[in-house]
Amino acid sequence: MLRRHWTRPLALVFLLGLLAPLPPSAAAAAPATVPETTASPPAAPDTATTVPLPSLSATTTQVAHGLRRPTALAAPDDGTGRLFITEKPGTVRVYHPDTGLAGTPLIDITSAVDESGNERGLLGIALPPDFAESQDVYLAYTALPDGAVTLARYRLDESRLEVLLAQEHAEYSNHNGGQLAFGPDGHLYWSIGDGGGSADPLRAGQRLDTLLGKILRIDVGRTCGALAYCVPADNPFAGTAGARPEIWLYGLRNPWRFSFDRADGSMWIGDVGQGRWEEVDHLAPGRGGANLGWSCYEGLERFEGGTCPPGEEYTKPVFTYSPYTGGCSVIGGHVYRGSRYAGLVGGTYIATDYCSSTVWALRPDGRGGYEQAEIGQMPTQVTSIGTTAEGEFYVVNDLPGGLHKVSFERQEPTCRVDRAVRSWGTGTTVELTVTNTGTTAVNGWTLEFPLALGQTVVSDWNTDLTQLSNTVTAVNAPYNATIAPGASITLGYVAGHTGDASAPPRFMLNGDACAIGR
């Protein structure tokens, strides 16, 4: 058996993958049972946050339309209140809440951008801390003529594009990554996918001699020799023979969107999965050199046919979900640090999915784990979550190309699920009590919830239950279809298990998140 080492991180596609999910037989094998090593525990929850996650609701309001396949957002901290929005063909548009979306692009590099295929184009944008003075804009795109993933600096005052770094990417058109962000250390971070194709055919994720399947960290404020940038001396592979010194993290499949928490500098990454698992990773500041597992692992599962170099230590994701819930590509977001909704979602990480549009809320529980809940729906096909300079949230969606403002409110759940669990030998018996905590009767119900990884339902009662991957759908029986306000029904199941990884509890009744009891 392959020996697996997991480290526990600090706290927790568009275009994206838009590989169709593979059948389960082609995707992953059962996980190995192995010990974990210990890293820094998650941070305590934000003291301003007192609202349980299931009591939160996220909604959006469209504020602009007419964008051409928007891919990313950035906000200059220059007092103007503007948002810069990248469009796939190679333009950057400007939005202001008072005047709307400007008709003339701020930047047009369409002559340099290869937008062939669904996932190529202008993909990312970042503004340096000194943007107000320098007027520099950093762009990530796939370049003509061969689709090389490219990092460039655009000088607004000169309308000049200066290529800084490029990685060949000609074999496949997908998995280009493209996120750019300045970290709390002032360095620029850039994500690049594994080179595309199914199952990492280039074996890029675990290789250190290529920039594919990585997040990079470079100093764009200086030049070093022939380079248009410098490699920070404390990059983890700066002195490693045969390794690209720009690499900060490796073992990634398609890290379409990552961000830094403004409060603690930790890094959140949404990494698009192959077909069974989408994942979110959360790393403490300074965790350079971490191996996030691909293609040895997809989420928490060993990936069949993947590359597993001996002696590697893999960093475990803090959150995974199955595309069988309707998702296809995780859209990593941000930790909310704005002021308007600080009492509701302060310190909470918000993400979504390109296909399901589910809004995920995650935050450390102060005990080494994470709370999670589904708290609403985004517009269809969101490609990026961005923030204003003040930390308020906006999203863009691919088709039909709109900009939407995100709002949060408290909305108490209308159901509660209490569990009674008994484990025995190689199985588990679970009884669920579902209570209608709302004010109207439920007439017909569907309860969706995850099982622990490796569990398989072998029998059930008081429900018609089906299982896809680790996702269970339980539908009412004819005699318990109605749940009056304040009333409860019970159902249960027996599951055999082969795995050792648990699934965080999450129950959805008719699409609404339930509070979790005992």
From TrEMBL:
Organism: Streptomyces glaucescens
Annotated segments matching region Disordered: 32-54
PANTHER family registered for this protein in UniProt: ALDOSE SUGAR DEHYDROGENASE YLII, HEDGEHOG-INTERACTING PROTEIN
Ranges of residues in domain CBM2: 408-517
Residues spanning the signal sequence: 1-26
Superkingdom as given in the UniProt entry: Bacteria
Keyword terms of this UniProt record: Carbohydrate metabolism, Polysaccharide degradation, Signal
InterPro entries: 6-blade_b-propeller_TolB-like, CBD2, CBM2/CBM3_carb-bd_dom_sf, CBM2_carb-bd_dom_sf, Glc/Sorbosone_DH, Quinoprot_gluc/sorb_DH_b-prop
Pfam families tied to this protein: CBM_2, GSDH
GO function term, MF aspect, one: polysaccharide binding
Protein name: CBM2 domain-containing protein
GO-annotated biological processes: polysaccharide catabolic process
